[in-house]
Structures are given as C-alpha cells and as structure tokens.
Write a structure and sequence with these properties.
single chain; 122 residues; alpha/beta; Hypothetical Protein Ychn, Chain: A
C-alpha cells in the first residue's frame, strides 16, 4: 500500500497581502482533492486570518474568496495550526479564533515539517 504524501504550508501574510494569504489555501484545498495530507500553519501577522470575522475582509482580485477556501479546507479535515507566541503578541484570545484551529509552538511545527514530503512558505 502506498504511503500518503504530506504537504505543509506556512502562511506569513494576512490582509496586507491578500494574494500571499490566499495562495497557500488554494494549494492546500487542491492537495486535499488529490488525497494529500495537508497542514497549514499561521505564523507572524497571518494569525489574524484565524480571528473570527477577519477573513471577510481579505480579498484578492481574481482569486477565490479566502473565507470559502479556509472553510472548505477545514471541512475537508485540514489542520490549521496557529503560532501561540504570535497570537499572544497580538493580544488575540483563544476564544477569538475560528473553530478548527490548534495553538502550537515551535516543536510541533518542526514535527509536522519533518514528517512532510514538502514544505512551502508564503
């Protein structure tokens, strides 16, 4: 039996660069359709993407709605890992995050990367 492939996408942009915030989720949902295991990790300013109500305001011209991509990704079983120190630095409470997020630290992200076939940073 073939081993499942795994991709990790690290997002480092939010509303200040909607294209860079959207592309990883486009790739992640496409990978899910290809039956690839996918993990998306939010670091730095991108943690705002996990804040309730924020996605409605991030729109990249000519690209699918980020809110729809994130919802589809999560509904398809995707993991959305959020940098705990990044959230703390921005005074975001865990209760402010959308459902399906998991707060993590460096060791967990390193484990995900080490177990992946590829890691991409946007």
């Amino acid at each position: 039996m073939a081993e499942t492939e795994k991709m990790v996408y690290i997002v480092t942009h939010a509303g200040e660069d909607p294209e860079r915030a959207t592309f990883p989720f486009m790739l992640a949902t496409a990978a899910q359709a290809m039956e690839v295991e996918v993990v998306v990790a939010l670091q730095g300013v991108s943690v705002f993407l996990a804040k309730k109500g924020y996605l409605e305001h991030v729109v990249a011209a000519g690209l699918p709605a980020l809110k729809d991509l994130v919802n589809s990704y999560l509904e398809s079983g995707g993991k959305l890992l959020i940098c705990t120190p990044c959230v703390r630095d921005r005074n975001i409470e865990e209760s402010d995050l959308i459902e399906g997020c998991e707060l993590i630290a460096a060791a967990r992200l390193n484990q995900e990367i080490l177990s992946a076939n590829a890691t991409l940073v946007y």
